[in-house]
Design brief:
Elements (H helix, E strand, L loop, with lengths): L3 H9 L6 H21 L11 E5 L5 H12 L6 E6 L2 H10 L4 E3 L3 H8 L1 E6 L7 H6 L4 E4 L22 E4 L2 H11 L6 E3 L11 H11 L7 E5 L8 H4 L7 H14 L2 E5 L17 E3 L8 H5 L4 E4 L4 H5 L6 E4 L20 E3 L2 H13 L7 H11 L7 H14 L1
Parallel strand pairs: 1-2, 1-4, 2-3, 4-5, 5-6, 6-7, 8-9, 8-11, 9-10, 11-12, 12-13
Amino acid sequence: MLSIENIWYFFTTGRKRKWSFYASHINVFSKMLVFRFFKMFSRSDKPERPIVILYGHKLDGNLKALFNYANEKNERPYDLYYATFDEEQYEELKKKYQKGILYTLKSSHLKIVMHAKCVITTHGPAGLLPLHWLNSKVHFVDVWHGIPFANYYPREFKHMRFYTACFVSSEKYKEIYQKFRGFREDQIKVTGFARHDIYQKKESISKDVQQKLKLDEYKHRILYATTSWTKEYRRNVIPFGLDAETFFEGMNKLSRELDSVTILRMHLNTDLQFDMEKYSNLAWIPQNKFLETNELLTAVDLLITDWSSIASDFVPMERPIVFLNNPMPDSYHEERPLPMERGGFHVTNISELEEAITDSLTGKGPYIHESQKKMRDVILGDKFDGKACERCDEEIRRIVLN
């Protein structure tokens, strides 16, 4: 089903990317048109079972949780695949998994995608939007890639109005999806966040992560992870107007005094690089070094962030969060209220940051701010029970078996 909003979205979603992005998507779209034409005259290649496609930037977060859960259930009534437009990512995943990974630029793989009964996405339909144009009977489901503080306008989600369902983390967040994203109540299913299920085994996962990343020699592990900025990212990634060297030296000194290590993990979209070798108690662990953010969080004792949705993934840990009072990112709307308040300690300068870290980790002050407990209720509700994947699977079965 074509619309002006959908066409505009498809041709502008990659406007900040290289031309190879457009080339691959046009390639796939062209093949889809050809396959759709021949499919009208042949039904011989119809799959025996419904096909479900997972699609996003990476096979991580909610997509990975659903992928692993489905592959552990031998009796599932559908076939599940993860599809990517990225050849390098495909080759890497193909080595890790024996089956279930598709590269959309391969004709044989794209045919499987074209037979999908359901597509589950984390960043909107993006390159698979033409699948909806060519066959409006394909169900699209949103599991999103994070629980942000962003105060969206409903118009920003017009390209997803055709979605069959959105899986959200709590009843409160269902209300937020209606008010700030404009989805209908019947579209929104409260399942809990699939990727939070692993936290039921956080102790064993934490031990493995600490050993793998050589973080187990420290008493505390502090994570510094800020959000993606657009126009002024380089200015805001280092807080309080400090230069990088001053900030890193200060954090390194404090970490050493607290027998801690501070892990620096910038947003996936940033190209910033820092040399950490001269700092004894700082560790640079970007996503291309260790992709699994949720696993990393099990090993973290305190989180420092600004507006990043990583705070919502750290909330279940019930460990302190310190928010940098940076200005709102460019994509936020200052005239609109936030869908939920940032719950935790708020700091406006380096002295307050150091005090908040020290007080929380040494017991001189409150371990967790009261506002963080309120934020936890908004994000998790009563669905943090290790059964989110199960509830998502039940919803997927209802969709593909009808």
